[in-house]
UniProtKB/TrEMBL annotation:
InterPro entries: NA-bd_OB-fold, NfeD2_TM. The chain crosses the membrane at residues 12-29, 41-61, 70-93. Residues 3-99 form the Membrane protein NfeD2 N-terminal transmembrane domain. The lineage of its organism: Bacteria, Bacillati, Bacillota, Bacilli, Bacillales. This is Membrane protein NfeD2 N-terminal transmembrane domain-containing protein. The keyword Cell membrane does not apply. It comes from the Bacteria. Keywords: Membrane, Transmembrane, Transmembrane helix. The keyword Transmembrane applies.
Length: 179
């Protein structure tokens, strides 16, 4: 069987070489060229991977089996599609959701609970640690009501200004709420 004047085995081989190289280059340089491919609805790595697996499967099945050309084409297409779907579900989706969970703004910190890891003195600064988006973050802190807050106190973040969180002891907030 021939396509575009080439034997199918040659076509599979060149598909493997060209798209395998493009896949490798894209994986290595994806951060540099990331914005160029934003117009595409799917990740270019999936497209390159599809044709790489398609070429490899087609070449190997064509070379080592007595199957007809159309059957080899169907097997290569189905196997490449299956592998790309698995790659998308188990690699790209988790990576994308992990990327988006790392980003947070100062406004996201307001109302979060934190724990004092360096005591906050009156008229001074300490440090708190909190968990946000699956990450542990430490921030400089000052007392919202200008009072000393000891180590290991659970605090509520009231405000954030220039990277410094204003906190108040959480017990105090609960007491005022229950009154």
């Amino acid at each position: 069987m021939t396509l575009f004047g080439l034997d199918m085995m040659t076509l599979y081989f060149w598909c493997l070489i060209i798209f395998g190289g493009l896949t490798l280059i894209y994986v290595l340089l994806s951060d540099v060229v990331d914005g160029i491919f934003d117009v595409l609805p799917i990740d270019p790595a999936l497209i390159f991977s599809f044709f790489t697996v398609f070429g490899a499967t087609g070449y190997l099945v064509e070379k080592y089996s007595p199957l007809s050309g159309l059957l080899v084409l169907a097997i290569a297409t189905v196997l490449a599609l299956l592998l790309v779907i698995l790659l998308h579900i188990f690699v790209f989706v988790p990576i994308k959701s992990a990327d988006s969970s790392l980003g947070y703004t100062d406004d996201d910190l307001k109302g979060k609970l934190a724990r004092v890891i360096i005591s906050v003195p009156k008229d001074g600064f300490g440090e708190v640690v909190l968990s946000i988006g699956g990450s542990t973050v430490s921030r400089s802190a000052q007392s919202f009501e200008n009072e000393e807050i000891p180590y290991d106190t659970e605090v509520l973040i009231i405000d954030v200004q220039t990277g410094v969180v204003s906190v108040t002891p959480y017990e105090k907030v609960l007491e005022n709420y229950n009154k």
